[in-house]
Amino acid sequence: MNAILLMLLGLGGMFLGYVFYSKFVAEKIYKLDPNFRTPAHEFEDGVDFVPTNKYVLWGHHFTSVAGAAPIIGPAIAVIWGWVPAFLWVIFGTIFFAGVHDAGAIWASNRNRARSIGALTGDVVGRRSQSLFMIVIFLVLLMVNAVFATAISGLLINFPSSVVPVWGAIFVALIIGQFIFRKWLNLGTVSVLGVIALYALIVVGPEAPLALPETVMGLSDNATWIIILFLYAAIASLLPVWMLLQPRDYINGLQLFIGLILIYGAVLISGPELVAPAFNTATPEGTPSLVPLLFVTIACGAISGFHGLVASGTTSKQLDKETDARFVGYFGAIGEGSLSLATIIAVTAGFATLADWQAVYHSFGQGGVTAFVSGGARILQEGLGFNVGIAETLLTVMAVLFAGTTMDTGLRLQRYIFQEWGSIYNIKWMEKAAPATLLAVGSCLLLAFGAGGADGSGGLAIWPLFGTTNQLLAGLTLLVVTTMLVKLKRPMYVTLLPLLFLLVMTIFALLIQLKGFYDASDWFLFSLDLLVLIAAIWIALEAASTLTRLRKENANSRD
């Protein structure tokens, strides 16, 4: 099959989903009100609560939730064939991710911009809140520790990306001043920012930078991880308008330009998909497609981490409630488009089926490296790009997304510690600086405690990220569904995705539990069991809460 047809079907489906389905959900289900006074205006403080242009906020939200996950997940999942990955990305984006992300923004916006974790206690119950906060903390711990490892690996393997990656931070600081102080209009700032960013990408291959193999007794990988967390700690304490918003915004523009280049190259070269549509000869040890596909591809279909960003930072910057449709639902469309481009790159970016099979020789292979090499080949054949420039462009794209996710992830982890301080009346923990130190400390403890001197300890619990993340998405949908029932509005648009996620998550956890038991991996076995208990608990809480509310609604009508 030609990749052009896959591209047109995918983009066309997501476009129709945004035009029609998101409009229905926004107007008939969430009933977004342009006159509602948002928390960004009510609690404006110039640091966390900042009313923001919806296009700038979309850039922040989209690039914060995207990270490297919508590349990694699909690039691994095509081992089952490109058809299952394609269908889950497209339908997951339209009916799951968009509804989930916009719903999380709406729910938080209607509750003083509180996080989904904090909301659970009021909306569902105190028992669920404690459970939710633990799951949130685990997800953030995994995301921050693993993304630091992924970024450091890319910086080491592609030294041409170092200058543009770090240079993008200075570009963001400059354009942040121009946007916030309104020295130039948004269009002019956007053009200047993109030019600066792509100039750095061109310079990158000419000025590759690499750390020494050891720095003060630490490996280059460990050194990069420490540098990344130091940067993320500083970034999480700065006002959102100074670095977080402009960096995410310029990265969002960069992504769309990158996608235009990739899709344009596909249109010109028309590559064939060399990977099988359904892979009936998967390598030994590959788990079953159902349910593992639905936890392997999270970002790009639906991801619980999105709910954390939506309710943790995005809702604090929402200028008008109606912007939630564009920021949340269209943000999911952007991520789905990236996942679609990844599927094309890792299935049509190889010369032959044998070349593809050489990479996908076992489960877990592919990932960002396959995306970079496959995408670079498509850019070379379609647009005549130099391979070095093409690889740098795609690597920078992946690293900048992962970096913005770390920025937001550490800020969210700081919020979690501050909320715990508020819940348990620990006054010093409610302050930003101590909470940030606790967030960084917990991530470094995992990175170096489980990974030794290399600092890659986050990978130790990464096998449970997919299931824990989807469990978190289920929790978010439970909160949104409960609010809809209380408001006596149709709930099926969120209830059906909630039920699907709970079934697939519990199924996947059981399969993984057996795998960890067979491998005598008692650490992951214990964590898996903990998450499994949490999933069953949530399922029971959902059934109990929704049944009670429906009875109350029925009695009120009598």
Describe this structure in words.
The protein has helices spanning 3-29, 39-42, 54-66, 69-77, 82-109, 116-123, 126-157, 162-180, 186-203, 220-237, 244-269, 289-296, 304-312, 323-348, 353-359, 367-383, 387-423, 432-449, 458-461, 465-486, 492-518, 522-557; strands at residues 214-215, 218-219. It has 558 residues and is mostly helical. It has one domain: Amino acid/polyamine transporter I (Up-down Bundle). A two-stranded antiparallel ribbon has the order 1-2. The longest helix is centred in the last third of the chain and has 37 residues, at 387-423. The protein is globular and about 65 Å long. It is a multi-pass membrane protein. InterPro entries: CstA, CstA_N. Its main location: membrane. The chain crosses the membrane at residues 6-26, 62-80, 86-109, 130-156, 162-180, 187-204, 224-244, 256-278, 290-314, 326-351, 383-404, 432-453, 459-480, 492-510, 522-540.
List keywords for this structure.
558 residues, mainly alpha, Amino acid/polyamine transporter I, 22 helices, 74% helix, 1% strand, Carbon starvation protein A, membrane, transmembrane helix, CstA_N, transmembrane
